[in-house]
Structures are given as C-alpha cells and as structure tokens.
Design brief:
The chain is of the alpha/beta class. The chain is built from 4 helices and 7 strands. A 5-stranded mixed β-sheet has the order 3-2-6-4-5, covered by helices on one side. The protein has a two-stranded parallel ribbon with strand order 1-7. The longest helix is centred in the first third of the chain and has 26 residues.
C-alpha cells in the first residue's frame, strides 16, 4: 500500500467519524419539535383530536328532518352548504317521525371537533358547554360524518356573529367517555 492510499483512507475515516458525531449532535440537540409520534392516551381509551377545531369545508354532514315542517332538512342543508359545510345526505328521519329537541347531533371519535362546530351553528346549549343534551357520542362510530337530526323545536341557525360567540363560549370540546384528548 502506498502513502497516497493510506492518506486517502485516513481522510475518509476522519470524515466518516465527523459525520457520525455531527448527526448524533444534531438529533440530540434538536429544539424545534417535541412532537410525540405515539399516543399519550392510557391503555383502553381511544385518542380523539379536540383542538384545533376543523374549518367548515373539512366537516361532512348528513341532515335529517324529524320536525313537523316538511323540507326542513333541505333548507338547513342549503344554509349550511352556503356557510361552507359539505352535506353528504339530506332526507327524512326514518327512525323517529318527529323529535321534540332543537337538534340531535350524533358523532364518533374522528368527528369530535366537527360536532362541536355544528353544535355552535345551532346555538345548542352555547351558554353551558357542559350541558351535552342533544349531543350523542358513540365510541364505535367510525364514520367521518356528523349526523344532524332537526327537531320540532328548531327555529333557525345562529347568525354568523352568534355562532362565533357560541364557539368562543363553548371553547375546546371535552374528550367524551372512553376517549382521551390527543391533540397535535
């Protein structure tokens, strides 16, 4: 082996050691992110995202009419579509011909934040975030759609300013039973 080859191998070796040390320092001293890529939820609970709330175009709805007013679901769907929601289905509620509530909102783990935004649109218990009447969570619901059933006590959707106030008053939704908040 001549001197040129020895010198080249020494230089490559030094560069290799320097690269390993530099990578180690970079990874261990990274202060930009403390993201965890594993869930921090206890065993046996389902992780749900409660914050940030989704934007209207990210929310998919099915709207059913269980009021005594024919076409109520269609008019609500039209208004919510105008506001930016995606409406997948509109029709009568086959299970119950009428319901006495303002609205019943059914949702699952993937739509907790979306259901909260929809709740604000109907001004449902906006002054009392802990009052969950009209909100129906199912831990087994795997759908990415929020189901809205219009009841006989429904009058109208909230005005934009009222909805914004309701969202502010409701704050971040609590994690439903059987789940835990695992926000990004």
């Amino acid at each position: 082996m001549n001197a040129a080859r020895i010198r080249a191998m020494v230089i490559v070796g030094v560069l290799l050691v320097a690269a390993v040390v530099l990578v180690k320092i970079t990874i261990s001293d990274d202060k930009q992110s403390h993201a965890s890529y594993t869930s921090s939820c206890p065993e046996g609970t389902i992780a749900v995202v409660t914050d940030p709330l989704p934007n209207y175009p990210q929310i998919n709805l099915k709207i059913y009419n269980a009021s005594a007013v024919p076409g109520q679901a269609g008019s609500v769907a039209s208004e919510l579509t105008t506001r930016g929601f995606k409406v997948a289905k509109v029709g009568p509620h086959d299970d119950k011909p009428t319901t006495a509530s303002v609205v019943d909102i059914t949702y699952g783990p993937s739509t907790v934040g979306a259901a909260w935004v929809v709740r604000a649109e109907f001004l449902l218990n906006a002054s009392d975030p802990l009052n969950m009447s009209g909100m129906h969570f199912s831990v087994t619901n795997k759908s990415n759609v929020v189901t809205v059933v219009i009841g006989t006590n429904f009058k109208q959707l909230g005005a934009k300013s009222e909805v914004n106030q309701a969202i502010a008053a409701l704050k971040t939704p609590p994690a439903p039973a059987g789940t835990c908040a695992d926000n990004p």
